[in-house]
Amino acid sequence: MTPGARVQAAIEILDEILEGRPAEQALTTWARRSRFAGSKDRAAIRDHVFDALRGRRSLAALGGAATGRGLMIGLVRAQGGDVDGLFSGVGHAPEPVTEAERAKARDPAPGAEAADIPDWLWPRFQAALGARAEEAGRIMQTRAPLHLRANLLRTDRAGAIAALAAGGIKAVTHPACETALEVTEGARQVARSQAYLDGLVELQDAASQAIVARLPLQPGARALDYCAGGGGKTLALAARTEGEVLAHDAAPQRMRDLPERAARAGAKVRLLATEGLDREAPFDLVLTDVPCSGSGSWRRAPDGKWALTPERLAELGHLQQAILQRAAELVAADGVLAYATCSMLHDENGDVVADFLAAHPDWRLSEEAHWTVLDGTDGFFLAVLTRVGVK
Ligand SMILES: C[S@@+](CC[C@H](N)C(=O)[O-])C[C@H]1O[C@@H](n2cnc3c(N)ncnc32)[C@H](O)[C@@H]1O
Fold it and tell me: What local confidence, expressed as pLDDT, does residue 389 receive?
């Protein structure tokens, strides 16, 4: 496909997404009906679509319309590309930009529009990121870095870097924690590399790793990952305890790949159904990596930024509170309850913890940490809670 034809394909996919179709679904459907597209075409089109979605608001201003075509005109302009060369109308390229379209194009207004944050969310975003809110918003217009966790059950960080290098992948250490690596070359090869297939590295954001690294864990501790999902943190926990970790999720199908991932990583993980929780309790540590807005990882899943509403945020707050309360019942008297989100918003972080502590005077906050996109990671939050009187 020509570069112009790729832009036209991205326009069509974006129009479907703007009508409400999930991004992944729109991309897959397009790929199925476009067998002529090779893997490089599909990758380039995917990049266009995600770049446009991250900057949906500012690019609509720059491109003169909140349509697939407007976003792509805006994107090419923002990236300093040749708009008239790509919008040539030749072959499968989009039609040339009209005078009317040119007249509507303008620079995004400073603040929420330039930062690509919905207006209702902007005060909350500012409350969380302070004077650097616009800078953080602009970082979120760009692609997220690819981070790996060196699996200490199989190797160390230097060993992981060397094994990746043998497969043509360049990675450097990331300061977030002792296991974190950032891939600087060959990102698309990682999932096929021997280092990955042998379980030496896992795909995991550096701050997500740092959360697990910060947990107070004694060797041999009995740990439960209460919201295990795909098991990214379960595996990191197992690498730290070097013992068995129990994994639970209200939607157990989300953990379906976990046994295979654990085998590859050499980690001892046992899946636990909801009915078995009380039988297995108490635990020395219960981690609740709760469902949230995902505001810390909107670079990877940008539709979430535009789909979030005040009502959904409030609903999430209730769910987060309910999970924390239930998980607290499973913690041993001298154990630890850890609350984590991949959000940067106070509503889902400090506010939830404060409400929990107000309703549970027997618990106290023993440690709190947060990471934002300004740290070169996804945004994450961690609160470590212990019972009053426990060191
Ligand atoms: C943020 S994701 C977990 C990501 C995972 N810990 C990781 O690192 O890959 C949140 C998970 O919580 C689960 N969940 C939702 N409601 C829950 C509940 N009431 N109890 C336990 N898990 C729940 C969801 O199914 C989802 O898999």
Answer: 83
> Known catalytic residue: 227?
no
What's the burial of 131, exposed, middle or buried (CB within 10 Å: 0-12/13-18/19+)? exposed
Among 265, 269, 264, which residue's Cα sits nearest to residue 248? 269
The answer to whether the CB of 168 falls within 8 A of the CB of 194 is no
- Structural domain spans, the chain: 3-108, 112-142, 146-203, 214-387
Is 289 assigned to a binding site?
Answer: yes
Distance between CA atoms of residues 180 and 46, nearest Å: 27
pLDDT digits (tens, 9 = 90+) for 185-216: 999 999 999 999 999 999 999 999 999 999 99
111 burial level (CB within 10 Å; 0-12, 13-18, 19+): middle
In this structure, what token pair is assigned to residue 25?
């679904």
Neighbouring-strand partners of residue 148: 181, 203
198 assigned ligand-binding residue:
no
Please tell me the CATH code under which domain 146-203 is placed: 3.30.70.1170
What's the 225 CA to ligand 1 centre distance in angstroms?
Answer: 9
Measured from the Cα of 225, ligand 1's closest atom is 6
Residue 49 token pair: 């679509």
Between the CA of 287 and the centroid of ligand 1 the distance, in Å, is 11
Is ipTM > 0.90 here?
Answer: yes
Which CATH architecture is the domain 214-387 placed in? 3-Layer(aba) Sandwich (3.40)
Tell which atom from ligand 1 comes closest to the C-alpha of 233.
8
Within 6 Å (CB) of ligand 1, which residues are found? 226-233, 249-251, 254, 289, 291, 323
Q: How do beta strands 331-341 and 283-289 pair?
A: parallel
Distance in Å, CA 255 to ligand 1 centroid: 10
**Separation of CA 164 and ligand 1 centre (Å):** 31
| Atom 9 in ligand 1: residue holding the nearest Cα | 232
Q: What CA–CA distance (Å, rounded) separates 78 from 90?
A: 23
Active-site residue identified among 177, 227, 292, 342? 342
Please report the sign of the dihedral spanned by the C-alpha atoms of residue 128, residue 134, residue 138, residue 139: negative
Ligand 1 atom showing the smallest separation from residue 230 Cα: 9
Averaged pLDDT, 72-91: 97
pLDDT over 90, % of the chain: 98
